[in-house]
């Protein structure tokens, strides 16, 4: 779990531990066994290696969410209309026309993503090539997304919005 004042709490199988506390708020965590990543309001991507946290990328702005498909296939989304891709090295900031609040990468590829954000925006990127805008039916900000495949996903947002879609 991640939270304010830079707190990261890890379940070690028997108890909760606090391996690191740093300045700034952690807003998102994602990982696979043995490889964990965190990001937040400090514009950095941190990676847990063995028993310590290492800053692997720096950027500008606040990143609200992180998702990926493997140990070196990670994307962050955030304020200033930005996405940031980490594939073992930092691949810089890509700008869009909307603030993204959450991302979900399908297990098949870091390039198959669901982006959600301000004013009801839902975008589906297939293979990193084409962005398809999905109609959310409203203008509330959307804050989180979870999917099981390219056919089924859930989105939650402002004012109690809960969306479910199965193609």
Short description:
By secondary structure, this protein is mainly β. Helices cover 0% and strands 61% of the residues.
Helix-and-strand structural type: mainly beta
- End-to-end separation in angstroms reads 32 Å
Beta-strand share of residues: over 45%
Q: Main β-sheet: number of strands, strand sense, barrel status?
A: 4 strands, antiparallel
Helix content: under 10%
Total discrete domains? 2
Give the uncertain stretches in residue-range form.
none
Integer-rounded radius of gyration: 16 Å
Overall, the morphology is: globular
Helix and strand run: EEEEEEEEEEEEEEEEE
Question: What is the overall number of helices?
Answer: 0
What does this structure look like?
With 167 residues, this protein is mostly beta strands. It folds into 2 domains: 1-87, no CATH class; 96-167, no CATH class. The chain is built from no helices and 17 strands. The protein has strands at 7-11, 16-21, 26-32, 35-40, 44-49, 52-58, 63-70, 73-78, 82-86, 90-95, 100-105, 113-117, 122-126, 130-134, 142-149, 152-157, 162-166. The strands form 5 sheets. The protein has a 4-stranded antiparallel sheet, with no helix packed on it. It has a 4-stranded antiparallel sheet with strand order 7-8-9-10, with no helix packed on it. The protein has a 4-stranded antiparallel sheet with strand order 11-12-13-14, with no helix packed on it.
List keywords for this structure.
167 residues, mainly beta, 2 domains, 4-stranded antiparallel sheet, 0% helix
Record the SSE blueprint.
Elements: E1 7-11, E2 16-21, E3 26-32, E4 35-40, E5 44-49, E6 52-58, E7 63-70, E8 73-78, E9 82-86, E10 90-95, E11 100-105, E12 113-117, E13 122-126, E14 130-134, E15 142-149, E16 152-157, E17 162-166
Antiparallel strand pairs: 1-2, 3-4, 4-5, 5-6, 7-8, 8-9, 9-10, 11-12, 12-13, 13-14, 15-16, 16-17
